[in-house]
Design brief:
There is one protein chain. The protein is an alpha+beta fold and 148 residues long. The protein is 30% helix and 17% strand. It contains 3 helices and 8 strands, in the order ββαβββββααβ. It is elongated and about 95 Å long. The protein starts with 5 loop residues before the first strand and ends in a 5-residue tail after the last strand.
C-alpha cells in the first residue's frame, strides 16, 4: 500500500481521499442558499436579495415594444413590485380631465386651484396607501399575472 496524498485542485490543501471536498473551497463553489435573502418569492418560497430582470415578452417580433420585468432568480416567475403604483385607465382619464378642465376653463381662478389641489391630494393619499399596504418587506414582490 502506498500512502498517496490527495490535494485540492483549487488551493492545493491535503485531502483525506479522492472524493473528499476541501472545506476551504466548498463555500466558493457551492450554490447560493435558497433560504437567505431579503425578499421571498410567492411561487417557490425561495429567498433572494435582488430579483433578476427579464425582457417581456421574450419572443416578441422586432416591431413589438418590450419592457423589463422583475423575475425570481430561482424559479423564473415574473414578479410585480408592490411599491410601484399602478393606475387604471379610468383613473388616468379622470386625472387628464381634471388637468384639461383646470387649464381651459373660464371658471374663477379659485376653482382651478381647487381642482389641482384635489389632484395633488389624491396622488399623495394613493402613495401613502401603497406604502401602508406593504406590511412585511419580504412580501414586496407578488406574482405578475399580466406576464402569463
Amino acid at each position: 500500500m502506498t500512502n498517496s496524498v490527495f490535494q485540492c485542485a483549487n488551493c492545493g490543501a491535503p485531502l483525506a481521499s479522492a472524493n473528499a471536498i476541501c472545506p476551504r473551497c466548498e463555500p466558493e463553489f457551492s450554490a447560493p442558499d435558497k433560504h437567505t435573502g431579503k425578499y421571498r418569492c410567492p411561487d417557490c418560497a425561495c429567498r433572494f436579495d435582488q430579483p433578476d430582470i427579464a425582457i417581456w415578452p421574450s419572443n416578441a417580433k422586432w416591431y413589438r415594444p418590450q419592457i423589463q420585468k422583475a423575475k425570481c432568480p430561482h424559479c423564473q416567475t415574473l414578479l410585480r413590485d408592490r411599491t410601484v403604483i399602478q393606475r387604471s385607465r379610468t383613473e388616468m382619464a379622470l386625472m387628464l380631465a381634471i388637468i384639461v378642465a383646470s387649464a381651459f376653463s373660464t371658471w374663477r381662478p379659485g376653482t382651478q386651484i381647487i381642482l389641482l389641489a384635489v389632484l395633488l391630494v389624491s396622488e399623495f393619499l394613493r402613495k401613502q396607501a401603497a406604502a401602508k399596504s406593504l406590511v412585511i418587506e419580504e412580501d414586496r414582490y407578488v406574482s405578475d399575472q399580466s406576464g402569463k
